[in-house]
Amino acid sequence: MAKREVDIVIISDVHLGTYGCHAKELLKYLKSVKPKMLILNGDIIDIWQFSKSYWPESHMKVVRRILKFVTEGVPVYYLTGNHDEMLRKFTDFNLGTFQLLDKIVLNIDGKKAWIFHGDVFDVTMQHSKWLAKMGAVGYDTLILINSMTNWLLTAMGRPKMSFSQKIKAKFKDAVKFINAFEQTAADLAVEKQYSYVICGHIHHAEIRQIQSTENTGSVLYLNSGDWVESLTALEYNQGDWKVFTYYADDFKTDNDEDDVTDAEDLDAKLDVKSLLERFRQEPG
Fold it and tell me: Could you give the CA distance from residue 89 to residue 85 in angstroms, rounded to a whole number?
């Protein structure tokens, strides 16, 4: 299958290391594209909930695929989020075309794009980190139960369902939070005179023009969604932005060729599980 050439691919909220992560689907997507730039906008690896007992091969393959982009000379920016905030102590680390940052401003075809994860806008994250972590564990448990339910529904020939999306849809506060998040990001971006503001964090893919609260201008707000429920990414190509949504029927013929990095046995060179355990245990 020929790879799609894309100028920029942005993914966020993958949550590698958790049961809810759709690593196999993400791997198929990453294999299908040939980006000129890859931006990992936070919560790619879930160091909060990481356990050495759960790190499937499919999760390692995603890491290999990302590193393969680096070996091919593709600029890869890893922007830290709240679930991988332990990496913030290594901000500004770079190796070849790989850079670890907290945020970045890029010039995209003459327009400035302000890109960051977005947890800075989350009041729960700022003032009650322990509550946010407890919520994350509960969320992961819900996703695990949902996965088992969907397996049964599929076996019965019935459509899948999303527990958390149904719960979110019923709570007006969740909708208010998303709207407030988007408006806050837009207001700051307009103030800084950026054309684009690009976030993750809230697991809600979006592209829309937002007017500032003070009516001093507008900005194109974009969110890449997540790879736990929505299975979405942002793509920029030939001047246009779009939300890519993964559908299994589009990836029935998967190319399973071995990566160069696979052949070199990356696992033996980089003990990811031990590194993540260290990040999780070391004080900030």
Answer: 8
- Per residue in 21-52, pLDDT (tens digit) is 999 999 999 999 999 999 999 999 988 776 77
CA 265 to CA 90: how far, in whole Å?
Answer: 26
CATH fold for domain 4-281: Purple Acid Phosphatase; chain A, domain 2 (3.60.21)
Residue 55: count of CB within 10 angstroms of its CB: 18
CA distance readout (Å), 156 to 20, 107, 147, 229: 21, 50, 14, 21
Task: Answer yes or no: pTM beyond 0.85.
Answer: no
Distances (CA, A) of 110 to 194, 239, 261: 11, 11, 35
Largest CA distance in the chain: 56
Would you list the domain boundaries of the chain? 4-281
Residue 158 has, within 13 A of its CA and on its CB side, a CA count of: 7
Taking the C-alpha atoms of residue 268 and residue 248, their distance in angstroms, rounded to an integer, is: 32
